[in-house]
Design a protein that fits this description.
Elements: H1 3-17, H2 26-40, H3 45-54, H4 56-66, H5 77-98, E1 105-109, H6 115-127, E2 134-139, H7 142-149, H8 164-170, H9 182-185, E3 188-192, E4 204-208, H10 218-231, E5 232-239, E6 254-256, E7 261-264
């Protein structure tokens, strides 16, 4: 796709879906869009946009594709183990002095179909079962949020890192397909949010945003990291993807705490 055509496609996607592709890496997104048009069978973007204005199902499929929902429960298990072993003990120790209920305020940003926030709910039930923890989960994709609030269905592949004990404790019986049980699901609040343009809540102990910002431009990444910093309490932790590195975190008052974790100074 040439740049002039991409400019027109971006304009139409913003008008139809309210997704602004200016924040995404150009070359990567152009390749994805080229692939999508071929798969759609449409001869041109003009024809395809005419189709999705009339077809809500196809419009939803494009929205899902553009918002890039790829995840799993306990994705990168060693990082989740590090969260349990090295990050949460300190946060839980500090919480009673900060909050009357002694629980943590946690945000899963870019939560997709719910795998990450439900993983957080499982972890908190395992490490701190007697306290109530607020888990806030947001995403731009309404279709993904509908699946998350519906507690599934999830596939065997989605549960590849879930132990048999966790499966019996946190999921409804008789899968696949699998559904998170109601007791676990009630620990998470899902909301629609555009991370780039919307205002964030504040005073979080832990923000989890993994394998999301890698799709954005360098300028948008910088903006998001600053917004995450502002949303954390002092001493709060940002948990990012296993391959994501914040360059010069000290410039935005973050300190690295091992792979994937940054502490607000």
């Amino acid at each position: 796709m040439e740049l002039d055509e991409y400019a027109l496609v971006k304009h139409q996607i913003k008008a139809i879906l309210n997704i602004d592709l200016v924040y995404y890496k150009d070359q990567q997104m152009r390749r994805r869009l080229d692939s999508w048009l071929v798969r759609s069978g449409a001869q041109s973007w003009e024809i395809y946009f005419h189709r999705i204005r009339a077809d809500t199902v196809e419009r939803g499929r494009l929205r899902d594709y553009l918002t890039i929902n790829v995840s799993a429960f306990f994705r990168d298990p060693e990082r989740w183990q590090s969260l349990k072993d090295t990050v949460l003990p300190r946060l839980l120790k500090e919480a009673p002095g900060l909050r009357p209920h002694g629980g943590l305020r946690i945000w899963s940003a870019g939560c997709s179909i719910g795998l990450e926030p439900y993983t957080l709910a499982m972890v908190m039930a395992e490490v701190s079962p007697t306290r109530h923890h607020y888990i806030h989960a947001t995403d731009l994709d309404r279709g993904a949020l509908a699946k998350a609030t519906g507690r599934g269905p999830y596939t065997t592949q989605d549960l590849q890192n879930v132990s048999p004990g966790q499966r019996s404790t946190f999921f409804e019986p008789n899968g696949p397909p699998y559904y998170v049980n109601k007791q676990t699901a009630k620990e998470v609040e899902f909301l629609e949010q555009n991370m780039v343009t919307d205002t964030f809540n504040k005073d979080f102990d832990l923000i989890v945003c993994r394998n999301v910002v890698i799709y954005f431009t360098a300028e948008t990444k910088d903006l998001l990291y600053k917004k995450f910093h502002a949303a954390l309490r002092h001493g709060g932790v940002l948990f990012v993807g296993a391959t994501e590195i914040i360059p010069r975190p000290q410039d935005i008052d973050l300190r690295s705490q091992g792979v994937s974790f940054y502490v607000k100074i």
